[in-house]
Each structure stands twice: as structure tokens, then as C-alpha cells.
Amino acid sequence: MTTPEQVDIRGTDFPVEQYRLPNGLRVVLSPDRGVPVVGVAVVYDIGIRLEPPGRTGFAHLFEHLMFQGSANVAKLEHMSYVQGSGGTLNGSTHLDYTDYYEMLPSNALERALFLEADRMRGPAITAENLANQIDVVKEEIRVNVLNRPYGGFPWLKLPPVMFDTFPNAHDGYGSFEDLEAATVADAQSFFDTYYAAGNAVLSVAGDFDVAQAVALIDRHFGNVAARSAPAHPGIGEPDLTGERRSSYVDPRAPLPAVAVAWRVPDPVADLTGYLAYVVLAELLTDGDASRLVERLIQKDRTATALSAYLGFMGEPFAVRDPTAIVMQAHLPVGTDVDKVLATIDEELNRVAHDGLAPGELDRVKARIALHMLREDDSVINRVLRLATAETIHGDAGMARDLPRRMGAVTEEQIIAAAAALTPNRRAVIEVIAEGAS
Amino acid sequence: MPTIPVPDLAPATEFTLPTCDERTLPNGLTILAIRRPSVPLVEVRLRVPFAHADVAESAVLSQTLLSGTADKTIVEIAAELQSVGGAISVGVDADRLLMAGNSLVGGLPKMLSTLSEVLHGATYPEDQVESERDRLVDRLNVARQQAAHQVQVALMKRVFPGHPYAIQSPEPEEVASVVADQVRRLHAGRLHPAGATLVIVGDLPTEQALDAGQAALADWNGTAAGELVEPVPALQTGPLLLVDRPDSVQSSIRMALTALPRTHADNAAQQLANLIFGGYFSSRLVANIREDKGYTYSPRSSIDHALAGSSIIIAADVATEVTGPALWETWYELGRMVATRVTDEELEQARRYALGTLRLGTATQSGLASLASSFAGLGLRIDWLLEHANRLSKVTVDDIARVSAEILAPAKAVTVVLGEASQVRGPLETLTPVTL
User: What is the phi/psi pair of residue A322, to 5°?
Assistant: First the structure.
């Protein structure tokens, strides 16, 4: 192996200011005058895991309702005000939070704040909007899950194998039956409980003046009703003590596939312990020089594609316990899944017993630093990372501190993490391919 | 609840772009450099004209270009790049081969020397070619099961018969028979600097970037002229093409229309007409078939300015039972663009969106690098965007009417639908002639 070249790994030092309005809304500001755009994000501390039993998919359906207008904004106007200001927008529903965001030319900052404040006071929840968005969500599920090979693999398929309780195990896209049963009263009650100012974080990043932004935020959000966050019910589950395995037939899948997950330390309470697994995932599967790519793809040819990541929905720093490190692989036709699992065990053992090669940890960290800096170059990614860090970790500054924390992960921590990924703690889901052409 | 007025926009700041400096080397390579110091990284794009290359051989080449040299293995190449935070990927289409990479800014010399090493000395080791070829076959077999891929393949064949754009992805069987010698011959024949462009964007002075590019690639050899694809054939209208996909729970509707080239005087008006029709969320098509009728999740219309011709592609994936109505509403919205005038408000909104997205698209290193590279393929530089912004600001409702008549008339569209034929054929035939 060649000796790695030493390069200077610099972090970013964009400023982060945090405060709280009297109504409970937390605010995070991060000015950067180097770009002519501004990003605005509102993150609500409600996601798939806290949606009501019998209402699978409701958090996501409700996210759609938040785009249907509000007291001072007619249906379709939310989008046309943002896009008609030269901006782009979206929202997305995750396991532990739901985000809404815009990126606009900086002259549209006040308009974005007005729009977010207006729907924070209450979206237009009507029977007509609800019925329309149930239809739209069903088409979203058809295009992303039902009408394609490997739809929902493994993010919808693996949690029910690994977990026992409704919050962690259920289908977050929702069953058509549950979606069709949703009522206006359900939506109103969901809003009243979870879309409280005290349960939300507003974040602004990019080209703005702090004093001016503080005044605008006060003008638009100051009169949003003070409502406190509901107590989080707790969604903990014990670790597995024996392996769990399941499989299903995918009639469109041409190749077998397997995903395997292990529980990891609490990402909030034990961030240091957790980060070792983030680095390990990268070391195992990022690029042609990674351990599992070299072994399974290049040498054994028992995998045709593979990846490892933290969190079922791939948001490593915006997820609460219980969560997992997930490895997934697509296999050449006829490959024995057990053989692939045994090879992964073997490679984990090799890390646990032989440690790392000279320079291996440094080069993996250099690539991780690049990923984080590259995300920071985009105002929209930065504004979302700040808002979710405040929501989940209770500190937006954690987003800025991550590169340093990641850089401090040691070889001993990686070895300990690899040693903990034993067969008796894993959950496995296998795709049986019946779409071979 | 009190009525709160929607805040006005603050005065717009001037739209500016960073300077793009360039240098053309004696071997024919053009290097473009842009400084954007936002984060201590650098983005690199090397674009080489690649028309008329065999589709299957090109696909294997793109997967194995970085898989070995005389003195380095695939793992050594990747590890060296990773040590500077770097990685390089290779993609190929009917027009060009593109090597795209990024690293910590201090790693630029290493990234460029890696480019140089593989351009001069990629060996395409037999075992790597074999293994990557098999993986490619696996991926293509997965793609074959995807509605989006299947309908795209059918649409390209229907729209560009006899042209290189007709077949943009190889069949697995063709890939399976490619051997290392074919890939080596393709590399030797086609990977040369004539007509190629290297773009470097990042946290360093442009002179330094140009010097680094020159130092690494001045001795890139060869004289083969970069080949370009001939212009696309005129679109031939005809019956709706229905492609059967048994048990499909949705129908994938696609329509193609001939668009004006990017450099046409009416291109700005064309962009705004397409936005108003279906080019963004606040469009007529989305308001109709998604937000009013709930037929689909993400209907869209986009303009594709390929090197050999420009097209408008309309796409909607709809529930099987509303295939006919969704097609009808799409035609209706096309017809409305042609037969009636858009409102001043619709035009202003689309104009502001188009101007705003120019800023958003150039606000990252990677966005700038990709834009500069694809513009270079068209013989343009990014400051073309400043002229384009100026043209966007002058488009009138009359311009939209004129250009819509030219490009959006439903009678000029070619339509392909992929879905469960036994269920959708009847409803479609009641609307229009259908061929299976």
C-alpha cells in the first residue's frame, strides 16, 4: 500500500446564533454573505415514529397538507409565492422529524418567513384537500414502492424484523387502508399536538443581516400562539440477544439482495460512541479501497453493489435511539446469502482482531471531511443540518462541531465497534428475486 | 384571524458570476478555472467528445478506466485519492465521456496526476474488466425491471430512429461479450485531448488551477479529433405507442416535442413557456393533474438541450385507471398554451423563478463545475447566463404565444405510454389511434 499523502483538513467556521422566542420557537441563524441566496427551514419534532397507531403514513400525509394553503395563503399559493420569488422548496418526513424548507434569492427572505409563520399558525385542513392529497400520496407510494423492484428495501422492510413496538416497526409510508381512513379531525388533532411553536425550530442561513432577520422573525413569528412541546413518550427497545431473519418475494427483483442491521449507541446521549460506527461504515463500503468493496465485489464477486450507513433513512445525525448501522448488498443470481453474511463477519473480525492498515483511518477521515464540507457548501443542506441538530441534539452548534468530533475517532474505537457487530445481535432481511429475466 | 398581507420582495441584487479564466494547451485541451472559496475543496470535470463509440464498450470502459495502471492496482488508485479526500467517477453518454471528481483543495495535484496516469496508462486488467462487466450486466437487468427505464428506452427509440440518441443504454447481452482488448482499443482511439475540456472550480486562484491542470495534462497525447454527433432527425408524429408492462399498477406517460436550441433567439421565451405549462410546481399541469385531480405524484415537463438537438419531454406516472383522463388533461393543457394567452402574472412568476434559479444553480462549487462543463460542450462559457438573464427579463406575453405555437402544439407531440396494456388500451383508443 502506498503511503498516504498528508493534506491539511480544514473545517468551516460559519457563525451560529441561537435564541428562543417567548412562544417557545427556537431560532438558529447562520449568516454567510458570500452567496446571493438565503435558506429557510422549519423543522417540527414529529416524525413517522410518533404517528398514531391505526394511522400509518399519517406524518407524511400531514406534511402534504402543510402545502395546501393557510389563513392568508390560498391553495397553490405557497408554492407560487416561493417559486415566483425565484426560489425552490420542499418538505420531507423522517423517522423523528419533519422538515419544510425554501432556498431563495436573498431579497425574498421576509416572504419565506411570512409563509412559514402562516402555516405554523395552521394549514388549511379541509376534506377536499385531504382527499386530494390522499390520492397524491397513493401515487407517490405506487411510484416509489409498489411499481418498482426493491421498492421500500430495506427502509420499510427491515425495521419490522429488528423491532417489536409500533413506533419503530411500522410502515412509515402507510397502508392504503390507513391513509384512506384519515379524517379532518385526525389532522386537526395531529396539528394541535405536534405542530406547536415549542416543538419547532426555525433556521435561516445564507445572505442576510442578523439584526434585520431578528426583527423580521419577531414580526412574523412573534404572534404565533405559545404552545409547548408534547412530552416525548420514549420509544426505546432492548437490543437483540439472538439473530432475527426474515425474507420476502419480490416479483420484479432480478437479483437477490440482503440487508443486515445492528443496534448502535444512542446518537444523542453517546455521540462519541456513535461516531465510531459512522467512520466504520465509511471504512467498510466507501469506494474501491474500502474493506467490503475490495473483498465482496472485487475479490469474491459475491456482491454486485453494496453500501453501509447509519439510520434506516440515511440521516445519521438527525435520528434518535433506537437506531442501527445498516449494510445492504445486491448479489449475483445464485449467490448464497449465508456465504455473504459469513464474509461480512469475517471482515468485521479482521478489523476487530488485526486493527487498521497504516494510513487507513486517516484517508477514510479525509473523505468524510470532504463529504461534510461539500454539504456545507450548499446553503440548503447547511440550514437543514443546523435545524435538525437543534431539534434532535438540542444544539445547532453540534452541526459545526461534527468535523472536529469525527476527526477525534480513534482506531481503538473502530476496533471496538467492529467487535460489537456479532451475528447474535443482527437483524437480517432477504429479498428473494423472482424477476430474473 | 387578522389578514396579513404577503410581504413584497426587497430590491433584487445584481446577478453576478465569478470570473472564468481559461487556457488552451498545444495538445488541444482547454482548461477552465473558476475560484469559489466557500469551502476548502475543489471540483474537477474532464469532458471528452465521445460520439459514435460503441455503447456497450463505452459502458465497460467507464466502469474500468480507474481499475489499474502498470504500477497501481484499483485499490491503490482509490486509496491514494481517498488520502486527499478525493474520488473520481466516470460517466459516458452518446455525446461525451465525463470524469468527475472532488477532493480537499490541497489534493488537486494528486487528483490531476491520477487523471493523467489513467489517461496515459490505464491497463484494463482482465479480472477487473470481467468483474465490472458482470456487475454492469446485473445493474442493467435491474434497470430493465424499472418502469422509468423501460419507458425511457421506448421513447428514445421512437423519437430518434436511426440516430445515436436512439439507444443510450446497452443491452445486458451486448455488455456480456465485451473483452478487455476492445476496451483498450476504444481508449487508444478516443481518449485524446482534442476538443476536450477540463474544468476546475474551488478554493484556489484561477492561475494556480490553470497551472496545475497544465502541469498534469500538457503531455496528454494523441491527435484524434473529437467526434460530434450528427443533428437529430425531425420528429415523426404518429399513433400513440403503447408498451405493455404486465401487472403494472401505474401507467408511465411520456410525450416528446421538438424544442428550439439553447442559442436560439427565442430560447428565453421557450424556457418560460415550458415553465408555465409544466416546468415547475407552480405550473398549469401540476395544478391540474396533481393538485386538482390527484392523478399523479410528480408530473413534469423539461427541456433537454442535448448537443445534437433539443427536446421537450413531458412525464407523468399515473394510476392505471386514470390513464385516459390524465393523457387528455395533458393534451388540454398543451392546447391551452397554444390557443389562449398566458396571463401577465403567470409570466412574471415564471420569469422570477427562472432568474432566481440561475442564482441557486451557481451557488455551489459542484453546481458551477457541472454547469461550466456542460456549457463547454455546447461551445459556451458560464457568462452566457448573464446574457440569458437579460433576455429572460425582456420576454413578453406575445413572445410566449409565438413560441408556444411553435413548440407546444399537441399535434406535434409524440406520445408513449408504458403500462398494463389489457387495461389501458381500450380507454386510450377512445381518445387517439394506438399502436402496440
Answer: -85, 140
